[in-house]
Amino acid sequence: MDTYFVGNQEYFKGIGKIAYEGPKSDNPLAFKFYDPKKIVRGKTMEDHLRFSVAYWHSFCADGTDPFGKATMHFPWKHDDPMQNARNKAEAAFEFITKLGAPFYAFHDVDASPDSESSAEYEKNYLEIAAYLKRLQDETGVRLLWNTSNLFSHPRYMNGAATNPDFSVLGRAALQVKTSLDVNVMLGGSGYTFWGGREGYMTLWNTDTKREEEHLGTFLRIARDYGRKIGFKGTFYIEPKPMEPSKHQYDFDAATAIAFIRKYGLENDFKCNIENNHATLAGHSFAHDLQVCVDNGMLGSVDANQGDAQNGWDTDEFPTNVYETTEAMLIILRNGGLHNGGLNFDAKRRRNSTELADLFIAHIGGMDAFALGLLTADKILADGKIDAMKKSRYASFDGGDGVLYEKGLIDLVKLADLGRKAQPKDISGKQELLYNLVNQYLFS
Ligand code: XUL
Ligand code: CO
């Protein structure tokens, strides 16, 4: 097998470029359904799916959880923080290139060492960003989005932009400003705000109105700075209802969209929808995607899945093809992901300790979305489901229903029509639709 690495050494030894071998392959390190150059609906799978690897889960999180220590050994680890960051970058670009994902995403402190000194923080970050740029140019891997970690450091325990202490906002701004500078250097497609602790723990000590307004102002000045320095991509808000806060201001897609509009950010901001965040909010992945599409607000996707028996954000790699099919159907009806992508904000389980497991986890996620794409394509090409949905609304496609949709019927006229109307019990055909989906999936 050919060796492949960037920098000085190969970290994922014995693993070459991941190839498509088809559904009959028994090679765990091969794609069964993701065939990047295969054309589906006039576009390659690669261009439809726009996969991205998340730096934080794949190259930083080492299996530590609230109950136990690290379980994963990273051969790129180094005691010197800057050398550690360079090694990690080389490991990341080797991995992403071998996997064949076109994009990656990171938080500032995933890629570059944090520091109590703001001058050192900025210096480190700009130096590592220059190295990332070199690796991007060498490999062709591109930046889907970056973001700033405004939730791990103790100073952010009461929030960042929504912190009741004004002095915290400045340090948060420094991180966002530097991340935007780095984004422009690296040609990023997007910039994400996930409001980890932008919320509250108890209303007894929180002025929610004031905090929400502070968040609106913070995002507006970040937008203004980004546009000033030439950031042409999309800003994303990533909704999540809770965890680590009891209640997060960007609860779900509908809440985030209302917020974006209230603060006049709709020309620059869209949503980054994460499956496990939607389920934590009591919705389905499909629900939050659909809410975004209905409002022209689908920006990007954090591709993962939760566990129905656990309430929390388990961030598992997506394998549920029923969910990926529904997601891809909604995305295709949206005309695709545009400059967003499917970013694997997902982690292998704590006891999946081999480096090969990192490949296997991503391969499974990519195959699950490829299957979802292929099935969604079958559903659209056949047209039966769309026709059934459309026919439910037939009464709005003719007669007074058309006038109503045009806003030409007032309440008195509508009540008049009501005097004569004789509604029938029309079946919603839900079971038939579920049966059809299984046929598309498995035949
Ligand atoms: C946390 C989460 C974050 C964001 C980026 O639940 O999803 O990793 O995606 O800050
Ligand atoms: Co996420």
SSE map:
Blueprint: E1 19-20, E2 30-31, E3 39-40, E4 43-44, H1 45-49, E5 51-54, H2 55-60, H3 81-99, E6 103-107, H4 108-111, H5 118-139, E7 142-147, H6 166-186, E8 190-194, E9 199-200, H7 208-228, E10 234-238, E11 247-248, H8 253-262, E12 269-274, H9 275-280, H10 285-294, E13 298-302, H11 321-333, E14 342-344, H12 355-382, H13 384-392, H14 400-405, H15 411-420, H16 430-442
Parallel strand pairs: 1-2, 5-6, 5-14, 6-7, 7-8, 8-10, 10-12, 12-13, 13-14
Antiparallel strand pairs: 3-4, 9-11
Residues 194, 238, 274, 302, 345 line the site of cobalt (II) ion.
Tell me about this structure:
The protein has helices at residues 45-49, 55-60, 81-99, 108-111, 118-139, 166-186, 208-228, 253-262, 275-280, 285-294, 321-333, 355-382, 384-392, 400-405, 411-420, 430-442; strands at residues 19-20, 30-31, 39-40, 43-44, 51-54, 103-107, 142-147, 190-194, 199-200, 234-238, 247-248, 269-274, 298-302, 342-344. It is an alpha/beta fold and 443 residues long. It folds into 2 domains: 19-382, Alpha-Beta Barrel (TIM Barrel), CATH 3.20.20; 385-442, no CATH class. Strands 5-6-7-8-10-12-13-14 form an 8-stranded parallel β-barrel, surrounded by 4 helices. The two termini are 36 Å apart. 42% of the residues are buried. The structure holds D-xylulose and cobalt (II) ion. Cobalt (II) ion binds at residues 194, 238, 274, 302, 345. Cobalt (II) ion (CO) binds next to loops.
Task: Point out poorly predicted stretches.
Answer: none
Q: How does the helix and strand content classify structurally?
A: alpha/beta
Shape: globular
- Compute the average pLDDT: 97
Largest sheet: 8 strands, parallel, barrel
Strand content: 5-15%
Number of helices: 16
Rg computed from alpha carbons, rounded to a whole number of angstroms: 24 Å
Order of helices and strands: EEEEHEHHEHHEHEEHEEHEHHEHEHHHHH
Number of separate domains: 2
Strand tally = 14
Q: Under the CATH scheme, which class of the largest domain?
A: Alpha Beta
Heteromolecules bound: D-xylulose, cobalt (II) ion
Query: Helicity level, as a percent range?
Result: 40-55%
**CATH structural architecture of the largest domain:** Alpha-Beta Barrel
Distance between the termini: 36 Å
Q: Any idea what the CATH superfamily of the largest domain is called?
A: Divalent-metal-dependent TIM barrel enzymes
